[in-house]
Amino acid sequence: MIKSFVKLISKNNVLEQIRYASQALPQLSSEKYNIKRKTFGTIEPSDVGYFRSILGEERVLTDESDVLPYNIDWIKNCRGQSRVVLKPRSTEEVSTILKYCNDKRLAVCPQGGNTGLVGGSVPVFDEIVISFALMNKIDTLDDLSGALVCEAGCILENLDNYVREHGLIMPLDLGAKGTCHIGGNTSTNAGGLRLLRYGNLHGSVLGIEAVKADGTVIDCLRALKKDNTGYHLKHLFIGSEGTLGLVTKVAIHCPVLPKSVNLGFFGVKNFENVLKLYKSAKSKLGEILSAFEMADFDSIDCTVKNLKLPNPISEYPFYVLVETHGSDEAHDSEKLTRFLASEMETGLIVDGTVASEPAKMQTIWNLRESIAGAGLAGGYVFKYDVSIPLKNYYDLVPILRKRLGDKALKVFGYGHVGDGNIHINVTVPQYTKEVSSLLEPYIFEEVSKVNGSISAEHGIGFRKPMYIHYSKDQSALQLMKDLKQLMDPNGILNPYKVLPDAV
Ligand SMILES: Cc1cc2nc3c(=O)[nH]c(=O)nc-3n(C[C@H](O)[C@H](O)[C@H](O)COP(=O)(O)OP(=O)(O)OC[C@H]3O[C@@H](n4cnc5c(N)ncnc54)[C@H](O)[C@@H]3O)c2cc1C
């Protein structure tokens, strides 16, 4: 089995290389987290026969080595036990599959690019994986309104390349863009690097087509900016992580491709100055500011060392990446260069570089985007993705370093300062319950004390249902449970995810 697992590594895909860097199979999620299988039906040879009758032989995977990658999440923390992967090509096929599964009480796990970081995209037991990989057609693009309509399995980067040819960009960008799907992005309400400028998907997604657990197709695919006709049902599917319905098509608003893009990468001496710099960037760069990201020394050091990537400036306690999107090259680059010069004078920036050439900007973005996977090369990473009021944004990193002492290799923090979203990574040689119990629920308690969110953008998935109450009160959880009951009464859609059993 391991041999065929190794065979699956794509030589050209850096994300995949990082993911499969260590060849050890993760422990089964059910054992690791002591979960009991719910009373769903068990898949029989006659069920496989039925799926083959509607999808054909090739789009029903049952060979153990073919199914294995669909059972393991990107961070190699979770492993499910599915024995069947279905690859529909149309909404009608998704609908037929779900109707059948619902009637037979067979649980399913929808999967996009499988880059999710909370274990939501892989089964826990023998749920049938429904992969959207073959639903990757673009329906329409209106280059006047910016409305793109496409199937859920389109890869984000492919969409971005496509709309760029028409003078537009996708409204979201993230390190996993070469692998993640727009359906997965929508189902997780993915944030990413430019949320500061283009807002989140509850704003950009204009319409959705989704299939309910019983196979009913819900058509909310209008590509209108304004449509106040009754309840805004699309929002139920945005961020519900495949537990209320399967997203089959998305209509999304694409902003205009900026004529001028500039990037600054700065060294900063302490976190207080990172915040001062953010305030100054908002005021001095104003409407052209498109990203304000920060990484601490250990984030960059780990990425440079583990992935052999270049750091364009010297070593500093904190790094800040500032990007601008505008329409006037001379004006925008002068504005950013003036910002750099004035903040070097105030001392907020100790050192820095500004780039507008695509290759140089790509090198800097690559360094920032690779942090998410860099820690994996050292063994195992406990990953946290929290929203915290800016004045407390970095507090948890030194607190955790002290709490863990030599039990952790590194504790580092990086993230989207503009959105109040920090990613805290704790690297260890291997997963242990001892370190896990020092981190959880401690981190979530601390986040809750400052009214933060225990999941800023990655979602709740399989890993966090038991902690959701730190961010949602009883009344909200009860309404979520009622909605789940209404839309998926047999609970077949992505079980063991998002909502805890006892609310
Ligand atoms: C290197 C790296 C960087 C990342 N950076 C960011 C970041 O900056 N911001 C951010 O928000 N996230 C980030 N992520 C997390 C991840 O990429 C996002 O959550 C992404 O939106 C997941 O998309 P996917 O297609 O891979 O979905 P998957 O991982 O396959 O699935 C995610 C969830 O959505 C459900 N799902 C998938 N497709 C559908 C569908 N069609 N219908 C219904 N449910 C579905 C799954 O069941 C699962 O619960 C990053 C991940 C990596 C590996």
Automatic annotation (TrEMBL):
The keyword Chaperone does not apply. InterPro entries: FAD-bd_oxidored_4_C (IPR004113), FAD-bd_PCMH (IPR016166), FAD-bd_PCMH-like_sf (IPR036318), FAD-bd_PCMH_sub1 (IPR016167), FAD-bd_PCMH_sub2 (IPR016169), FAD-linked_Oxase-like_C (IPR016164), FAD-oxidored/transferase_4 (IPR051264), Oxid_FAD_bind_N (IPR006094). It is found in: Peroxisome. Residues 77-257 form the FAD-binding PCMH-type domain. SUPFAM superfamilies: FAD-binding/transporter-associated domain-like (SSF56176), FAD-linked oxidases, C-terminal domain (SSF55103). Its EC number is 1.1.99.39. GO terms for molecular function: (R)-2-hydroxyglutarate dehydrogenase activity; FAD binding. One of its GO terms (cellular component) is mitochondrion. Its cofactor is FAD. Keywords: FAD, Flavoprotein, Oxidoreductase, Peroxisome. It holds the Pfam family FAD-oxidase_C. It catalyses: (R)-malate + A = oxaloacetate + AH2. Belongs to the FAD-binding oxidoreductase/transferase type 4 family. Homodimer. Catalyzes the oxidation of D-2-hydroxyglutarate (D-2-HG) to alpha-ketoglutarate. Also catalyzes the oxidation of other D-2-hydroxyacids, such as D-malate (D-MAL) and D-lactate (D-LAC). Exhibits high activities towards D-2-HG and D-MAL but a very weak activity towards D-LAC. This is D-2-hydroxyglutarate dehydrogenase, mitochondrial. It comes from Mythimna separata (Oriental armyworm).
